[in-house]
Structures are given as C-alpha cells and as structure tokens.
Amino acid sequence: MIIKTLVIGPIEVNNYLVIDENTKDAALIDAGGDWEKTVKLAKDNNASIKYILNTHGHFDHTAGDYDLREKTGAKVLVHQNDMYFVENIKAHLELYNMPKFETPKIDAYLEDGQIIKVGNLEFKVIHTPGHSEGAVCFLVDDVLFSGDTLFADSVGRTDLPGGSYEKLKDSVINKLFTLDESIKVYPGHGSSTSIGHEKKNNPFFGIKAQ
Fold first, then answer.
1. Fewest beta carbons less than 10 Å away: which of 75, 109, 133, 159?
2. Exposed, middle or buried: residue 69 (CB in 10 Å: 0-12, 13-18, 19+)?
3. Is the pLDDT of residue 209 over 60?
4. How many whole angstroms separate alpha carbon 86 and alpha carbon 105?
5. Coil/strand/helix, residue 92
C-alpha cells in the first residue's frame, strides 16, 4: 500500500491517495478541490483512481468530488446521513466565502461494516457519528483514515448541524479505541498519530478508554 498526501484548500484538508502497489488501482480519501493537482499526483504514481471515499459531507472534504468524478470516472461514495451537506454545498461555500464548486454526484452510499475493494486493498467502513451524522472512518490493513472524527491529540468539532459530542465520544471510545493500538491514524487535518497514542493522551475525553 502506498499513501500519498495532498493538503488542499484554505482549510488545509488532508486528501489521501491510497494506491495498491501491485495493481495501481487507487482510492482517494476526501476531495477538497484542486482536481488538477490530484490528477497529476495519480499520474505521477501511475495510479488509477477507482473510488472517491468521503469521510463526511462537509464542503471542505467534498468540494472536489464533481470535477474528479468527471476527470477520472471514479465512483463517489458518502454516507447517506450527510446528504444534507452534499446537496447544499453551494450555499455552504457561499456562506463561508469559499470558491465555487459543483454539487457532487453520488454513486452509492456508504454503510457501516461495508468492505470496499480497490485492487487487492480492502477498505472497511466504520460509521462514527459525532462530527456529523454521516461521518465515517476507513480501516485498511494497519491504517485508519479518520476524517474529522479523530485528530492528533484532538477531535472534530461538534457545533455544526448534526454534531454531537456524546455521539463523538461514543464513536471514538467504543469503535476506534477498541482497534489495535499499533494502528496508524491519518486524520482529515493535521499530522498523523496512532490509536495507542490517542488512548493515552487525547485530552477530549473525561475517562481513559479501558
């Protein structure tokens, strides 16, 4: 597995190009925009983007969905509970004075426990509501792509529509902190971390995971 990171847009979203080094099939985790930079990265690595896997529906993670789908033919997937954000992306971009992008076209909905095969890689969907109702993480081998659910020494905000700190806490402690501590975490913003480090050091929970 090859992981290439692009930091896209004014909110500096981590977009991850995850490539099966044998078949060169790839998945793009989140698409913050700048399709040209993303397509160039895939081309430079001889990779073919088969899926765009959105960790949630917020505009900074989905703004590039439409253009990249058009340019690559990749299928765009998001959890159904976040379609409110997808369908209203233009209004949200305007509200935050962001560049204009087209409304994403969604090919299928993500479901908890679903396995998405990309070449020889298997991405397991983990539904982790809290940052948004449709937030998900993707587990592949010993790597977790956590979107805005879990950051290095932090967590995603819960003050936006559909956000809930109690749901976020439940998702992190009962779904993510039960994973092997050696698993490396690639979040939607900021630097990478690990499950073990966050169990011991994340300051946003009143109790330590048992």
1. 159
2. buried
3. no
4. 9
5. helix
Distance CA 133, CA 187 (A): 18
Identity of residue 43: K
- The model's pLDDT over 91-126, given as tens digits with 9 standing for 90+, comes to 776 766 667 767 889 999 999 999 999 999 999 999
Scored b (16 or more CB within 10 A) or e, 29-52 reads bbbbbbbeebeebbeeeebbbbbb
CATH number, domain at 63?
Answer: 3.60.15.10
The Cβ-side half-sphere exposure at 37, using a 13 Å CA radius, reads 13
Nearest to 86 by CA among 75, 99, 102: 102
Residue 97 confidence (pLDDT): 65
Residues in the chain: 210
Domain that holds residue 58: 2-201
Q: Where are the alpha helices (DSSP H) in the chain?
A: 35-44, 59-62, 65-72, 83-87, 89-95, 165-171, 195-201
Structure-token pair, residue 37: 């930079």
- The model carries a pTM of 0.94
